[in-house]
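pasting Molybdopterin synthase catalytic subunit for the record, 164 residues
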Amino acid sequence: MSPHHLVQLTDDAIDCVPLMAWIADPDVGAHAWFLGVTRRTTGDRVTQLLSYEAHRPMATQELRRLASEAIKRFELTKLVIVHRLGEVPVGEASVALGCSSPHRKQSFAALPWIMDQLKTDVPIWKRETFTDGSTQWMHPNESPSAPSHSSELDSDEPDLRISN
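structre below
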């Protein structure tokens, strides 16, 4: 673990309290957080839960690389990236990002950039299960309300295509 970033993949619910303590620093003026949570509806469909799978060694390596790059790019003091794997019910967090910096602008700018990079570069795959029993693997560049092909809806395999 770097003294400046904490990266974790977890199978358990994300507890933000120890993460908040980890980025604490009396010499910074900003702490910023983003929690990505499972929402109840996607377009006109009702979501039961999300499921995440990952190639853990590769995902951890990419998260560490991403954290190091973000710290340099945005002059962050500390950074936390925690991603949950397995089933994540409605209302619970899938991902927690937290950072500290001397001033708010660095932290505010860092969070959306980190989340966008995480979704496109880190080998973590998301499957949405709807209350009607259907499932859909979600591609990071796909709009949640965009129509999908029925063959993709019924597939039990993740979409491993990479698009830029």
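The radius of gyration is 16 Å.
The first helix runs from residue 16 to 23.
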